[in-house]
Design brief:
The structure holds 2 protein chains of 2 kinds. Chain A is of the alpha/beta class. Helix content of chain A is 39%, strand content 17%. The chains are: A alpha/beta, B mainly alpha.
Chain lengths: 153, 346
């Protein structure tokens, strides 16, 4: 039987948008499935050294939000929502994003940054966390994702 | 006077008037005089009475006039006040309104009105239900105190929209609007005015009809939804086909469907080595440490530890656990340690 493989694309940088990608990747590794994550556009924030510990939760326009959208747009609201979510995660003893990246790295999941997004946001390889394997193009992504299930988050 | 039967009397009268002195008629005259006198007396007293009455009447009028005048003045003031308050113009306007009403209605309309009377009465009855009246009463209370209620900011309005009462009110309002919309769209699509009547009547029934339709449609919808699911249902529970699972027992010890030891108390070191061999894992010293840590953790807490609990509890790197158990370390460790499958996503 061929080794199962998943390719996860993380395109958004909200705390609530990054976690699913990381947990899916880790879950794949825990189940003995090869996994790699392709961080593109705002998803790059999750692997950017200066941003990884400060990801926010955007409740505006989120129909599942417990607060009305009008309030969600107020200054500082993202920080409040993010700190509330982080507190909850601490209660559940869930690892933070940086630890998740470390776990993924230890679990053998590969993390890749999107070259185009790096250029767009003016980031260089030294700005990224050390767990990132490489900066790749979309063509590289497809080469690696050959035979993998692709999950877009 | 020329009547012959009265002649004797008239002659006597003439006799009195013509000749005042007459021997034969002297006592008669005296009698007559006495009679006239008494008559005059009666007349005089009557005159006195009449004149007194007249005088009283005049006095009454004299006294009554100022009162009447005062009354008129007061009435005038009151009427002025009434007019100032706009009653008169109101009445005039009402008259005009009535004229409009009467003018805009035609005999046919009255026929319609008569036909719709039952419907109107139903509406009135509905509106005068205690609940409806209570709502109207409370709404009126709120309107009466409207100027005491402070203006509300957008945020307040939003936060108020989270109050259950407000939400229920909005829901009721929306339902009302929906009902009105249903009725008006029904009217818009109908061609003649006469066809409005049954439609408006039916409006009250429509919700019940919708509910009935929904309940009738629901089972078929459910059937459609479940239909494609059926072929996938009989699939066997998917599990990674490991040797352990295929065997179902190892060294005579029963495993569960996913290859975990059914009864953790039956675990032995030999069992662990057999499972590890079946999983293709070499039980190094590090690996053994992880297995025994997991087993101890389960025995003390009653829950199989996940990878993070093992790494954190042992103070080791995630990488180390994946090095010792490259494929699905959490589950592999649990199988070897003879403990249940760890739960959780991390």
């Amino acid at each position: 039987m061929d080794q199962r493989k998943v390719a996860i694309i993380c395109s958004k940088g909200g705390l609530d948008e990054v976690y699913p990608a990381l947990i899916l990747a880790n879950g794949a590794r825990m189940s003995g499935i090869d996994a790699f994550v392709f961080f593109t556009f705002y998803g790059l924030d999750a692997i950017t050294e200066s941003k990884v510990d400060h990801l926010h939760v955007n409740m505006a326009g989120n129909p599942s939000s417990p607060v009305p959208t009008v309030l969600s747009g107020l200054p500082g609201f993202e920080s409040i929502a993010a700190s509330m979510m982080k507190k909850k995660m601490e209660e559940l003893d869930l690892p933070d994003v940086r630890e998740m990246l470390d776990i993924l790295d230890g679990a053998g999941a590969k993390l890749y940054a999107c070259q185009l997004a790096m250029e767009m946001f003016g980031r260089e390889e030294k700005d990224l966390v050390k767990q990132v394997t490489a900066v790749i193009t979309v063509g590289d992504f497809y080469d690696m994702a050959d035979g993998a299930q692709v999950i877009f988050t | 006077m020329n009547n012959p039967t009265t002649t004797p009397r008239s002659s006597t009268v003439n006799g009195v008037s013509d000749s005042s002195v007459s021997d034969s008629s002297a006592p008669q005259l005296a009698e007559q005089l006495a009679r006239m006198e008494s008559k005059l007396d009666r007349m005089m007293s009557e005159l006195d009475y009449l004149s007194a009455r007249q005088r009283r009447m005049e006095e009454l009028v004299d006294e009554g006039m100022p009162i009447a005048r005062e009354a008129m003045r007061v009435a005038g003031i009151h009427l002025d006040a009434i007019e100032a308050k706009g009653y008169v113009s109101l009445v005039k306007a009402m008259k005009q309104a009535m004229d409009n009403v009467v003018g805009s209605y035609q005999p046919d309309d009255f026929q319609d009105l008569a036909d719709n009377m039952v419907g109107i009465l139903e509406v009135v009855r509905g509106m005068t239900q205690p609940q409806a009246l209570a709502i109207a009463d409370q709404a009126a209370d709120v309107l009466n105190t409207a100027n005491e209620i402070a203006p509300v900011s957008v945020f307040k309005a939003i936060s108020a929209s989270r109050e259950e009462e407000v939400q229920r009110g909005m829901a009721v309002g929306l339902q009302l609007l929906r009902q009105i919309g249903r009725v008006t769209s029904g009217q818009a699509s109908s061609t003649g005015r006469t066809r409005d009547r049954p439609r408006t009547r039916r409006a009250g029934v429509s919700t019940g009809l919708d509910a009935r339709l929904a309940s009738r449609l629901a089972p078929s919808r459910r059937a459609v939804r479940t239909a494609p699911a059926e072929p996938t249902a009989p699939q066997p529970a998917a599990a990674s086909p490991t040797v352990a699972q295929a065997a179902k027992t190892i060294n005579g010890v029963a495993l569960d469907a996913q290859g975990f030891l059914a009864d953790p108390s039956q675990w032995t070191r030999e069992f662990a080595e057999l499972v590890a061999a079946a999983e293709g894992v070499e039980l190094t010293q590090d690996a053994w440490a992880m297995v025994s840590f997991a087993r101890d953790s389960f025995l003390s807490s009653g829950a199989a530890p996940n990878i993070r609990k093992i790494t954190k509890g042992m103070g080791i790197e995630t990488r180390a656990i994946y090095t010792a158990f490259p494929k699905a370390p959490g589950k592999t460790i649990a199988r070897i340690a003879g403990i249940p499958k760890p739960v959780g996503c991390i």
